[in-house]
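Sample intake sheet
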Amino acid sequence: MAIQNVTESYVLAQTAGDTYNGDSRDQTYSISPFLTGAGETITIVDQGGNNAIELPAGLTITSSLVVSDQAILTLSNGAVIDIRGANTFTYKVGQNVLVGDTTGADLNYADFAQDVLGVTLDGGNLVEGGQVTVDDTGGGGLPVLPTVSLAPTNGQTTEGDNGNTVVTFTATLSSASDDLVAVDYATASSTAQSDVDFLAASGSLVFSPGTTQRTFDVEIVGDTEYEPDEIFRVELSNPQGAVLDQSGTVIKGFEALHTILDDDQPSTPSDDHSNNRNSTATALTFGDVTTGEIERNGDEDVFRIELEAGRQYTVELNNMNDLGITDETVRMAFYDQNNRIFDSIIASAGENTGFTFEADGTGTFFYEVSNLSSGGPDGNTYAVQIDELSGSDDHSNNRNSTATALTFGDVTTGEIERNGDEDVFRIELEAGRQYTVELNNMNDLGITDETVRMAFYDQNNRIFDSIIASAGENTGFTFEADGTGTFFYEVSNLSSGGPDGNTYAVQIDVFI
């Protein structure tokens, strides 16, 4: 490069990496690849005065980057000229004062960008220009290249359930060219995956002289998977005979973001048993084992069965724990005919548990199995079984009129036919009177740890006292009735793990 002081006429040779800071005097900077080192960067900074940039005829600028106040020019030898304060310079196009060539034109920065570099300033946005050669008349760069843009820049396409949907993109030249123009295109993944959500596409578009538009297609792959909307990119690159459209901020004119709109619905997990306490609930059959699975947290499997009032039944719940989670617990809740829970059992991981009960009415009863470990994984399995007890029951287990009536002074015997059996008795008592009760654990099975309990219920159906008879023991106590009416006494086996069939005897008398 040479710097010519228009008043003192001196020339400075450029050395690598120099920065030229002008002063308040008028200065002209003559740009020539013969005076600049190949591949070096030279910076010119305007500091005042009426300054100019001189561009001789025949100078080839292979590329340019311009903004409102800066121009970066790359010359044919690879040297880079960085002009700071570019909007304050006059551009002497086609002139070379050092050799006496003063023909050409003086252009301001905007006209220099338009007429020589072939680009339009876009405020603070960076605009890229292609290769130009300065002519010897000062008329501008040869040639002024058209810009190439892509559309649609921000389109949308519904995915579809099957097959492929074609999206057409259009590349457009800002003006027709007298020469062939070419540009490459290619797709790229963003949130959408190439060859999964769309088919990768790439190639070259060639514009014949006089034409301004070429198209290419990208295929969207349809599926039935519920997923978010996804985006892929399309970009133009490597223009020949044109420059890329640099307009735009988030999306430049030479690129596109395309959204694939998902049109699928979220799938509903399968459910092996209904969660409704109505006719859709799975029917149980006496003696059959029915399996189920807690498919997800919050799943409730409901079963139904027809029961007969006064009959006794056993229910078993087996928590298979096939997931191997030690704290995975399953609960079965039992609903009466008023749709209220009257009892429940809980099976820990790997546990098989159950109980015996007597139906309090005739009709449809419901049983609901759910997972108590709400934070645990889905997929825990279980098994349920209900059986009707075939053996007879000597005394009702209901605290109502079906209970066996006791007579003062009489000994009444009973048998715990099975684990969970409860024998209930009733008697009419008078408030303020005292009574004695005896309980004899006959221990006819000869089991030394077989114990029997008698619980005493007040008129509010609450236990107010109880006595326990160990194996072979005869025990009792005296009490005063706190009201007049029917009182209930319930005998059960405390040794729930022992055998069935233990017998006992009860007696009540008025205390004189």
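Comment: Confidence is low (pLDDT under 50) at residues 1-16. The helical segments are 109-117.
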